[in-house]
Amino acid sequence: MDFNDTPEQAKFRKTCREWLEKNAKHKDNASKEPSFANKDVLEEAKLWQKKKYDAGWAMLHWPKEYGGIGASPIERIIWANEESKFDVPKGIFEIGLGMCGPVMMQYASEEQKERYLPPMAEGKEIWCQLFSEPSAGSDVAGLRSKAVQDGDKWIINGQKVWTSGAHFSDYGILVVRHDPELEKHKGLTFFFVDMKSPGIEVKPIKQITGGSSFNEVYFTDVEIPDSQRLGEIGDGWKVAITTLMNERLAVGDADGVDVEDAFRWAKTQDSLGEPLLNNKAARSSIADWYCEKSGLKNTKLRTMSALSKGDTPGPEASITKIVSAGKLQDIGNFGIDSLDMAGMLKTDDPDIKKFQMAWLGAPGMRIAGGTDEILRNIIAERVLGLPQEPRADKGLAYKDIPSGNS
Amino acid sequence: MNLDFSDDQKFLQQEARKFLDKEQTLSRNRSVLENSNKVDKELWKKIVDLGWTGIRVPEDYGGLGLGHLELCVIAEELGRFLAPVPFSSSVYLFTEAIINYASDEIKKDLLPKLVSGEVVGTLAITESFQAPTSDNIETLSENGTLNGKKIGVPDAEIATHTIVVCKTNNGISLQLVDLSSSGVTVEHQENIDESRGHFSIAFENAKCDLIGDDGSGWDLYELLINQAAVLFAYEQIGGSQASLDMAINYAKERYAFGRPIGSFQAIKHKLADMYVALTLAKSNCYYAAWALSTNASDLPSASATARVSATKAFQLCSKENIQTHGGNGFTWEYDCHMFYRRSKLLSLNIGSLSNWREKLVISLEQSNIN
Q1: Same domain flag for B104 and B125
Q2: B251 is in which domain, residue-wise?
Q3: Is A390 within 8 Å of B259 when comparing Cβ atoms?
Q4: Chain A closest CA to B233's CA: distance in Å?
Q5: How many domains does chain A have?
Q6: Are residues A258 and A195 part of one domain?
Q7: Which residues of A touch B361 (CB under 8 A)?
Q8: Is A120 on the interface with B (CB under 8 A)?
């Protein structure tokens, strides 16, 4: 057991840090509003991505021909670890690079990879993921958007929803139903699509935070060339599963206030005439959050140890979002509650804003990229080996299955 | 970066698991619980013969001279099988205190005997139905003799010696007492987990020897339990894993409404939550094991983090294992209650969950986590 880097890892870490120190600001304690859709942030994020790309850091684990430097998994983790200590734009490229990239890598033609992957890594072209539909959320294989083949192209009609970043995306990955007569998992086919195609209409959805990071996307007679099909006709579910697996790795930690913020706040905030940190209940919560935070951090270190020995990481990583999203919600609530009646009020105070934003944003984190419930099912079935639930839609043709609110 | 045990340590763990399984340790636990034996002397002797009591004892004193990591993997297995032996009292607490604080003369005398099993130790601190503090200890040591009464001392019957946290003119001190000496009375006290007997020990002008500096006893005790907490936490994650495994197996085999109960989300989500708590605790234990084995400066927060999360994990896993078993889980016949009892014993020995949460926050205040 050893917590230190090997000499090679230490050297690599040093290289990362030196570049970051030259090119980015260390994180300070000032608050930053999560501002996914803000135009300036988009520009800032693109600039940062380009800078990283030019230096080889953008997708360092990708092969050189697609814009990477062929880094090992462990080097990728070391980079992410170092980058997280700096105040850099986040939340724009995660879906494209974390989910669309890997699926293109696996299923696109060589020519397509050379065309699409480097600009994706560079941040020049942004990608989104078009899976969920109004009647198909957790049960995403129940989606009903239609693809009809017409010679060497497909005609798409239907609606997608909760599509993060669709309003500024250039391309998207899309799963649609080519045959409603087949069982629901068997009638799906996977494509990538130019978001500027005629017939695509993007409508932002206002969230409970007031912001709009995700959208409804309408498809009306949208044409996609058959060459943009990923996988065989009818393999859509298999390809989607690859993406969802990557999504779970890409989503990871819920971003926002954490135990350090709660601790710092509790030191100075007054609670009935003394610092909140003197309050037993506050101390107990802080202890538990610290244990959760450390538990996640140390779980990642165990994953990293497995990777560095060439082992496949265990299923431990599946707990990250369940734990961090719940913690985010509780810590947001803790900060607001400490303000008593005034906790309702909007203010420019960055600390208070952070707690309020966390509390408002956390419900989204508990749903996005697999709800708490779906993730618990995944742990129970794939990790603990418990049997699947009997299904009411088993063996039925898709068209005969009731879905959505019907 | 390698947050994992070595191949040798993993081998030791596998061998320990095979041994405790072959010895039908869970049945032994039940037997001690049912027959008021208070300890399994036969199993204890076999454990001594395997050399586990001497893992951390330096070779000069007849031990194996290995590190804390070897002790961690053994602890996890003892916890998994609920071994009804005084390992935590004698090894994590007594032997460690002798190694860390005793004079060379005492070490020369006791350490080889701890290895051979001739000496078994425990630690006596509690005096009343409240948490012991440096202010409420009344047992008094003066001129080499000890007076007072300790309660709830685990394993004191099989123990030959105890370390007593007591008062002196200079504050709190640690005193070593041979339990066979005159003026010492050990009496059984019934407790929630009779697979590990608890006892009162009365001292009436009993002879005692100072361990460590006079007046520094409370600091030494805190240091000792900061280290021992990591080992207790390993027993707790072993017990958590066993409870989770029992619940999984039962949920796969038990049918209701025409299907295995493990196919119901109410059960799945419960077991997933147990897995989450256990995974967090286990990862924190790995870090704490490393901090313990290297005496890292953040050992106090690392051990408290492991302790708090392992206590929570074992409490959750043992109670929800009963719940998953339904009515059967509440019977004496099923083993679920043995894990439930042990989870309580391990969570209270060396201090309760709320006290360890407090210790954790104090360590964060001292290290200033921001």
Answers
A1: no
A2: 218-367
A3: yes
A4: 13
A5: 3
A6: no
A7: 277, 283, 286-287
A8: no
Q: Of A214, A237, A260, which one is at a domain's C-terminal end?
A: A237
Q: Which structural domain, as residue segments, surrounds residue A56? A: 7-92
Whether B352 has its CB under 8 Å from any CB of chain A: the answer is: no
Residue B1 lies in a domain: no
Is A386 close to B370, i.e. CB distance below 8 A? no
Asked if B67 has any chain A CB less than 8 Å from its own CB, the reply is no
Taking CB atoms and an 8 Å cutoff, what residues of chain B touch A390? 259, 263
Maximum Cα–Cα distance for chain A, whole Å? 76
Asked if residue A100 is part of any domain, the answer here is no
Instruction: Provide the pLDDT for residue B123.
Output: 98
pLDDT tens digits for chain B (370 residues)?
788 999 999 999 999 999 999 999 999 999 999 998 899 999 999 999 999 999 999 999 999 999 999 999 999 999 999 999 999 999 999 999 999 999 999 999 999 999 999 999 999 999 999 999 999 999 999 999 999 999 999 999 999 999 999 999 999 999 999 999 999 999 999 999 999 999 999 999 999 999 999 999 999 999 999 999 999 999 999 999 999 999 999 999 999 999 999 999 999 999 999 999 999 999 999 999 999 999 999 999 999 999 999 999 999 999 999 999 999 999 999 999 999 999 999 999 999 999 999 999 999 999 866 5
d(CA A173, CA A194): 9
Q: What is the largest CA-CA distance in chain B?
A: 73
| DSSP letter assigned to residue A80 | H
Chain A residues with beta carbon closer than 8 angstroms to that of B294: 3
Q: Which of residues 270-299 of A touch B (CB under 8 A)?
A: 277, 283-284, 286-288, 290-292, 294-299
A125 and B CB contact within 8 Å: no
Q: Determine the residue type at B59.
A: E
CA B317 to centroid of chain Cα atoms: 18
Q: Is residue A154 located within the same domain as residue A228?
A: yes
Which of B116, B145, B179 is the endpoint of a domain? Answer: B116
Question: Residue B80: which of B197, B243, B232 has the closest Cα?
Answer: B243
CA distance A171 to A129: 9
Q: For residue B163, which of B214, B226, B204, B217 has the smallest C-alpha distance? A: B217
ipTM of the complex: 0.96
Contacts of A371 (CB under 8 A, 6+ apart): A137, A138
Do A299 and A366 sit in the same domain of this protein?
yes
Shared domain check, A157 and A60? no
pLDDT over 90 percentage in chain A: 72
| pLDDT band (50, 70, 90) for residue A34 | very low
Q: Is A260 on the interface with B (CB under 8 A)?
A: yes
pLDDT digits (tens, 9 = 90+) for A253-284: 667 899 999 999 999 999 999 999 999 999 99
Same domain, A15 and A60: yes
The whole-model pTM stands at: 0.94
Inside any domain, residue A2 = no
Question: Between chains, do A376 and B265 touch, taking CB under 8 Å as contact?
Answer: yes
Specify if A196 maps to a domain: yes
Does residue B227 share a domain with residue B205? no
- The domain boundary residue, chosen from B215, B250, B283: B215
Output the domain CATH number for residue B57.
Answer: 1.10.540.10
Residue B233 makes CB contacts below 8 A (sequence gap 6+) with B281, B284, B285, B288, B303, B306, B307, B309, B310, B311
State whether residue B275 sits within 8 Å of chain A by CB: yes
Residues of A in Cβ contact (< 8 Å) with B287 = 294, 298, 301
Interface touch B271/A291, C-beta < 8 Å:
no
CA distance B351 to chain A (A): 15
Contact B283, B338 (CB under 8 A): no
Answer whether residue B2 is part of any domain: no
